[in-house]
């Protein structure tokens, strides 16, 4: 599965008041693992940035004067996201701005929904943690994702943090995304025939760095799972009810 974690920054909050995109950032994941391919661009919005947006992003009007228009990068952007599942926090906000920019660039470009499916992590978090704060910062804290380097809102930083948050929220679903085909495996075994071991398999023990990473992951699971992570619970003896 190809997924794109996407974040945007804008001149203001209301697309219906003519506010525009000033940054688009995307992080690609393949089979739930970052591929190393990112897409990021600043945009000239052809209008002033609201003071509130300026304070949140730290982006000044002068910085954007020599940046490309959305119409200049739209083909490159669409080629990067085409056919992927988009993972977005508060997706209606970002999709609203992207669709408005596409409409300005040309009706033939269609809408984001014509090219991609969309998963809203805000809706996912509200379902999982009802009655709690579910901003990106709040989720980072709850799930043990380090966001200490996030002083201001920035598209690429936020997309990378959201990727970590999404993976932490869905860590129990890893097996669903591995493309496992039981029937194909059975066919493969039948074709290969029985496997006979002629020597004892080598057992590789985790080193200190791997054990530390494992403990850190369990710490994060303890914070997000009611009653602590399954891996640190005492085993249930036979004949007892958990």
Comma- or semicolon-separated keywords:
alpha/beta; Nucleotidyltransferase, domain 5; 15% strand
Task: Describe what you observe in this structure.
By secondary structure, the protein is an alpha/beta fold. It has a single domain (2-176), classed as Nucleotidyltransferase, domain 5 (2-Layer Sandwich), CATH 3.30.420. Helix content is 40%, strand content 15%. It is built from nine helices and five strands. It has helices spanning 51-57, 61-64, 70-81, 91-105, 121-128, 136-143, 155-169, 182-192, 208-224, and strands spanning 2-10, 21-30, 33-42, 85-88, 117-120. Strands 3-2-1-4-5 form a five-stranded mixed β-sheet. Strand 4 (85-88), helix 4 (91-105) and strand 5 form a beta-alpha-beta unit. Helix 6 (136-143) packs across helix 7.
Order of helices and strands: EEEHHHEHEHHHHH
Structural class based on helices, strands and sheet pairing: alpha/beta
Query: Whole-Å distance between the termini?
Result: 36 Å
> What overall form do the CA principal axes indicate?
globular
**Using only CA atoms, what is the Rg?**
22 Å
Please report which band the strand proportion falls in: under 5%, 5-15%, 15-25%, 25-35%, 35-45% or over 45%.
Answer: 15-25%
CATH C-level label: Alpha Beta
Unreliable spans: 174-203, 234-242
The proportion of residues forming helix, as a percent range, comes to: 40-55%
Kindly report the CATH topology.
Answer: Nucleotidyltransferase, domain 5
Instruction: Count structural domains.
Output: 1
């Amino acid at each position: 599965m190809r997924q794109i974690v996407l974040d945007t920054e804008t001149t203001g909050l209301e697309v219906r008041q003519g506010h525009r995109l000033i940054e688009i950032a995307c992080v690609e994941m393949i089979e739930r693992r970052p591929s190393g391919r990112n897409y990021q661009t600043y945009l000239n919005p052809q209008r002033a940035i609201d003071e509130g947006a300026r304070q949140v992003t730290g982006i000044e009007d002068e910085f954007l004067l020599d940046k490309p228009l959305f119409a200049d990068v739209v083909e490159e952007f669409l080629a990067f996201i085409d056919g992927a599942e988009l993972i977005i926090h508060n997706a209606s906000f970002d999709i609203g701005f992207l669709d408005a920019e596409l409409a300005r660039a040309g009706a033939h470009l269609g809408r984001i929904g014509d090219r991609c499916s969309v998963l809203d992590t805000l809706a996912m978090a509200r379902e999982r943690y009802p009655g709690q704060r579910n901003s990106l910062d709040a989720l980072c804290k709850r799930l043990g994702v380090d966001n200490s380097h996030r002083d201001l809102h920035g598209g690429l930083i936020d997309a990378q943090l959201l990727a970590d948050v999404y993976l932490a929220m869905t860590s129990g679903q890893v097996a669903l995304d591995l493309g496992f085909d039981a029937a194909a495996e059975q066919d493969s075994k039948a074709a290969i025939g029985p496997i006979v071991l002629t020597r004892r398999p080598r057992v590789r023990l985790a080193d200190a760095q791997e054990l530390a990473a494992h403990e850190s992951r369990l710490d994060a699971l303890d914070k997000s799972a009611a009653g602590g992570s399954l891996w640190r619970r005492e085993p249930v003896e036979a004949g007892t009810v958990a």
